[in-house]
Amino acid sequence: MAIGDFHLHSTASDGVQSPAWVMERAAANGVRILSLTDHDTTDGLPEAAAAAARLGLRLIPGVEISTEVGKADVHLLGFGFDPAGRRLQEFFRWQREGRLARVEKIVSILRDHGMPLETKRVFEIAGEATVGRPHVARALLEKGYVASVQEAFDRWLGNGKPADVNREKLDPKDAIAIIHEHGGVVFVAHPVYIGENYPDVIRHLRDLGADGLETYYKHYPADVIAAHAALAADLGMAASGGSDYHGLGNPDDRDIGDIPFPDDRVDAFVRFIDANCACGAMEGAL
Ligand code: AMP
Ligand code: FE
Ligand code: FE
Ligand code: ZN
Predict the structure, then answer these.
(1) Predicted model pTM
(2) What average pLDDT does this structure show over 270-274?
(3) Cα(175)–Cα(86) distance, rounded to whole angstroms?
């Protein structure tokens, strides 16, 4: 188990567990310092910060933002920014509105494939959370169109599948700028998902201002991690690590903190945050 985990989701976006539950599980697994990185929202942070304070954990403000470079989906993790920033919150609200329109499109494609769903039902399942494909997957499961959330992704919703709809393109430059403007740093998430040419894409992102690379990810094997660490060093980028925990129980999923992230690499990441961020821990933001 690692002492740090900097990629976690909760019910504030498409995770299954509440922010407080995620903090409790992390503490039980031996994690000491962490970040909640819900999609396009910081709404889970106050609850997480209260739980973290109670449990003696250090919580670094975080978020995950979806952007595109050409045809590639590029997810960026923001850390250590001031979550109270008004322009930042406007930006997140705008991103979440794009997700509502996208769900309408996904539902209409699924209807054309003989799987009628109520858009309203998808929003009900999401509740207050940032809505996304996992909520559509749960609606498909509920209707019996698929046997599992994983099957919903494999057949319909996964990247490149018939009901995979891209949102209005967000240029990574804009996401990087807004996080920097609010005192944070930006790491490129799960590089392998970017596709085969990911080293070129990451170099481009570095040139746009990205600060680091998520090197110690979930189930990545040792050779992949070594390649990412070398790439990050070559590009002068810092290295982060995280489980991308959603609580969905998919085949590659890892428990919170169950990631190949050595303690000295966690320490190096935290030093990087402390040296470069306005808001290294939530105490400062509340
Ligand atoms: P969205 O934010 O709506 O694009 O949905 C992205 C989320 O869907 C990811 O954070 C994962 O939770 C989930 N997801 C994406 N692709 C897959 C996949 N192939 N299998 C299972 N879950 C996936
Ligand atoms: Fe997610
Ligand atoms: Fe992601
Ligand atoms: Zn994620």
Answers:
(1) 0.93
(2) 97
(3) 15
